[in-house]
Amino acid sequence: xxxxxxxxxxxxxxxxxxxxxxxxxxxxxxxxxxxxxxxxxxxxxxxxxxxxxxxxxxxxxxxxxxxxxxxxxxxxxxxxxxxxxxxxxxxxxxxxxxxxxxxxxxxxxxxxxxxxxxxxxxxxxxxxxxxxxxxxxxxxxxxxxxxxxxxxxxxxxxxxxxxxxxxxxxxxxxxxxxxxxxxxxxxxxxxxxxxxxxxxxxxxxxxxxxxxxxxxxxxxxxxxxxxxxxxxxxxxxxxxxxx
Length: 243
Description:
This protein is of the alpha+beta class.
């Protein structure tokens, strides 16, 4: 199931991006109408107090991060998430389901998570994603992604401020806000973002969040979720574990 935000253009300059944008917009219009109200908040989540956001990151403590991946390389199952950091459905999944998936599958070494960020909603999506990808170069992408979801503001209201980035960075060992702000516009960051955009097209992504599940190192398949809760993704993960 794809539960995307309201339609917006995909912002990145990439030959395939415009095509991806059209797909995402169409998926947004269809899925938003079909979404169950209990799983489809009408507005973006209200930004949480810094202390609350930082506490929620404790469930990631001690789990290896490398670039866009969370978990052991030897995990039997890989789950890929396509998401826009301004998408409220993505934030809902991150707040309610990600901790369960991490504690049940990632921390136990069964699952490896990979984040592929898109930025089609607007300027704050671009700033947020650039920040997360830059943090990934220091192996803190998942910390930043979750902190941004916890503090997610209204669409393109300017909520991804330099102060917010510095505040998040202050809770990460060896990372400074100034460093993240400098690196998020670096060519290497932009290249990684464009690779995710191209992968979205190749994988047939039609909205956010979208998930792929499969054996690590093997073929991944798109998963049609019936719920944003843990029960939505768990059957697909368990099916691969049972193979």
